[in-house]
Amino acid sequence: MPPKRATSTKRKAASPSPSPHPDTESQQNSKGKAKGKAKAAAKPKASEKAKEGQSAENAQPTNKVLPVHIAFAPKEPGTVRIATWNICGLAAAQKKGFKYYVEAEDPDVLILTETKVNDDPVDPALTNRFPYRYWAKSSKKSYSGTAVLSKIEPLSVDYTLPGHPDPASVKGRIVTLEFASCYLVGTYVVNAGTGLKTLDAKKEWNAHFEAYLCALDKTKPVIWAGDLNVAPTALDLANPKTNWNKTPGYTEAETSSFARILNASNDGADPDPEAGKFVDVWRARHPELRHYTYFSYRFNCREKGLGWRLDMFVVSERLVERVKMCEIRSEIYGASDHCPVVMELEAPL
């Protein structure tokens, strides 16, 4: 999730578009140069609201904590329910109703990103529900963090990104579980940073991660999920034009990497005929819909529907026919500035 950003001294007249979160670093200004000085960031001008075409279409609940009573449709028989959620710090989310979502969703596998934990938590809401718990913790204290919690015992677990030259930077960002029929890879992908200052680190991650997914897929199909820190297309953020190649998560380098994963066998001057294709599940099932998983706490973004779709499920093409449902839990807002995403897949894993 995005940290607090320093307020820019200049902005465009239109309402600011939230930028995806540079982990716990300062957030960047996503709008570039402005014609005049902005007023206080917490109070956008009324005229700015009117200029946002997404406001009415994507307006969302703005509660600050989760309700105690949450209910979802029961899981389809014969499926496995997998959920992913950037919780913007487990300790903070626990104070805002985190357990009520976990109890209501009751997933078979829960992927948590940006956990910010330093030790394996002993939260009964998790330990009593998931006997198999794998926490990837960052080398930096209270930073990043990825977990995969499962009711199903995996065959193996790995926390590395093979070939990456800086293993310390990978810690806390990836957990791979191997099951009988597939791999499940949970990630909190590197952010390109304020002013794109860490875009090179993102490119480094992407190069090795693309190769890693391709290698896994040649062994068995893959489910990749988590906070992927990329808006793949213009449909996946509220203000694509003003953010293109200026804001982390929506640059040529990042979107091209994602596209290469989806179409690995046809990509590049020397395509790999054995590389399998991948599918962005929610987008494939909702090809024209604008729907977001992250809303900045600033600028009343949630109220105005100004968001980014950064959290998702990407699966090997040959798994698509097993997918029975994939939805963004927009109503689960308040415990984090992200919403969970859930997918049901024909069992077994």
* H-E order: EEHHEHHEHEEEHEEHEHHEHHEEE
Q: How many helical elements?
A: 11
The structural class is alpha+beta
Helix content: 10-25%
Specify the biggest β-sheet.
6 strands, mixed
Which outline best applies?
globular
Radius of gyration: 19 Å
Quote the distance from N terminus to C terminus.
29 Å
* Uncertain parts: 1-16, 24-56
Strand content: 15-25%
Task: Provide a quick synopsis of the model.
With 349 residues, this protein is an alpha+beta fold. The protein has 11 helices and 14 strands. 22% of the residues lie in helices and 19% in strands.
Task: Explain what the structure shows.
- By secondary structure, this protein is of the alpha+beta class.
- Helices cover 22% and strands 19% of the residues.
- Strands 5-6-4-3-14-13 form a six-stranded mixed sheet. Strands 7-8-9-10-12-11 form a six-stranded mixed sheet.
